[in-house]
């Protein structure tokens, strides 16, 4: 089909999606990334020139992107740097729960989770002196920026068509400018340090980096927050599942002395199969990622379909995540045990479901580099909340699942149509306890499973 003179191919077949992911020369996200970056970030002309691709056909056409991707990805592979980020995030999240006692208090669950998750993620990335932890009013600015990011990327009168998002972006840019000018980045994670070094090595000055940081924090929260929210909701709405998971999670929870609880998140993949299966099913149910690529040259896909140069290829995951052919007759039913027996299934079924039917983090060269950190943070926080706290409906009745609505163009996980008010209290057996964590190296690869 053609939209506004753009030729668009929509590909839903798992086999064809995999073929597109494999052929990174013919199908690339790089031109889209460059185009959006130039429109969205407030960068000077010298920086924009450095971001421009080399002549087409050059072996290093997208040097800027590939160098940056390599620098960031190397800090997110399993190892001590990733473990340090996990530890920082979980420690910070727990510190933000200290005011929750055994007495009930009312909270709006989505915003309550999101605000704390944003602070914890910022701490993991930029260290304890990050601007978000110092000024919580910036969290709402982050949500405003995320809500309007599609309009902002158009770059036409942003202060008019996306006023809140524009103001939010300006506030975030200023806060990160102060952070960098104050030299606080010396305590940032290796992920941030590597980004800085990559920018500097390519000739981009330090004063340009803060203009990109709001988007980095957005990438770390935009999909993780709703994924965590839905994980909690799908568990709370099913009392039997809630009880079973609390029992399963007790196997990685150890009391040390009179006032310390150690949570061994490194064992989640090995000892908590129902919990990790529930997480995967939540992603299958709520993730509606639409992969976009540009056709770099006329390409005959799998020897049958001619895709023309400069067209857009879209690969909507919801068509695969909600496919009867891939998942069977109960494809539209939430089944928390769906992923528990995958290794016992025939090889052809495993291949169909896992190589093309389940792609919540994208695929190919653009497979999300932060997927290990995001998963560990989501599951770690969910374990803390489910183990140490009680959640009940505001009216004292049965917890009702919020309705889902479509996500924005830049988002992958569906949002709730409205926030849900709940009562939260600390479980009495955990009152006064301090949480500590064993975060790795553990079995991340096993519970991510792709």
UniProtKB/TrEMBL annotation:
Keyword Transcription regulation: no
CDD domains xrefs: CYP7_CYP8-like (cd11040)
GO molecular function: heme binding; iron ion binding; monooxygenase activity; oxidoreductase activity, acting on paired donors, with incorporation or reduction of molecular oxygen
UniProt keyword terms in alphabetical order: Heme, Iron, Metal-binding
Cofactors named for this entry: heme
Residue numbers binding heme: 368
Pfam families per the UniProt record, alphabetical: p450 (PF00067)
Keyword Heme in annotation: yes
Superkingdom per UniProt: Eukaryota
Family of the protein in this entry: Belongs to the cytochrome P450 family.
Protein name from the UniProt record: Cytochrome P450
Native source organism of the sequence: Coleophoma crateriformis
């Amino acid at each position: 089909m053609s939209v506004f003179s753009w030729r668009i191919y929509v590909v839903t077949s798992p086999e064809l999606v995999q073929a597109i992911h494999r052929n990174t020369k013919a199908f690339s996200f790089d031109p889209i990334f460059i185009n959006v970056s130039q429109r969205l970030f407030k960068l000077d002309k010298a920086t924009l020139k450095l971001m421009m691709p080399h002549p087409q056909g050059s072996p290093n056409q997208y040097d800027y992107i590939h160098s940056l991707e390599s620098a960031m990805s190397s800090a997110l592979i399993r190892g001590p740097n990733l473990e340090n980020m996990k530890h920082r995030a979980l420690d910070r999240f727990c510190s933000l729960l200290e005011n929750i006692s055994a007495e009930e208090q009312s909270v709006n669950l989505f915003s309550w989770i999101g605000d704390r998750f944003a602070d914890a993620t910022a701490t993991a990335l930029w260290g304890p002196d990050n601007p978000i932890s110092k000024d919580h009013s910036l969290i709402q600015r982050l949500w405003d920026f995320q809500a309007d990011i599609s309009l902002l990327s158009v770059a036409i009168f942003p202060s008019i068509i996306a006023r809140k998002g524009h103001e939010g972006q300006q506030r975030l840019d200023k806060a990160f400018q102060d952070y960098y000018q104050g030299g606080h980045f010396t305590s940032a994670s290796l992920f941030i340090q590597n980004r800085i070094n990559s920018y500097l090595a390519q000739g981009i000055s330090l004063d340009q980096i803060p203009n990109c940081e709001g988007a980095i924090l957005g990438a770390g929260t935009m999909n993780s927050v709703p994924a965590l929210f839905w994980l909690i909701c799908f568990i709370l709405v099913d009392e039997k599942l809630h009880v079973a998971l609390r029992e399963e999670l007790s196997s990685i929870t150890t009391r040390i002395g009179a006032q310390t609880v150690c949570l061994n998140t490194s064992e989640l993949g090995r000892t908590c199969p129902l919990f990790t299966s529930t997480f995967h099913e939540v992603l299958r149910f709520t993730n509606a990622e639409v992969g976009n690529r540009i056709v770099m040259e006329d390409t005959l896909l799998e020897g049958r379909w001619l895709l023309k140069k400069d067209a857009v290829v879209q690969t909507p995951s919801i068509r695969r995540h909600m496919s009867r052919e891939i998942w069977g007759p109960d494809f539209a039913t939430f089944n928390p045990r769906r992923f528990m027996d995958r290794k016992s299934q025939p090889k052809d079924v495993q291949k169909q479901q896992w190589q093309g039917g389940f792609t919540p983090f994208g695929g190919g060269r653009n497979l999300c580099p932060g997927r290990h950190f995001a998963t560990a943070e989501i599951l770690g926080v969910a374990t803390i909340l489910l183990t140490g706290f009680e959640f009940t409906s505001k009216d004292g009745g049965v917890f009702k699942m919020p309705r889902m609505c479509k996500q924005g163009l830049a988002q992958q996980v569906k949002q709730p149509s409205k926030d849900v008010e709940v009562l939260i209290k600390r479980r009495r057996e955990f009152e006064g306890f301090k949480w500590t964590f064993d975060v790795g190296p553990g079995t991340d690869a096993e519970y991510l499973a792709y």
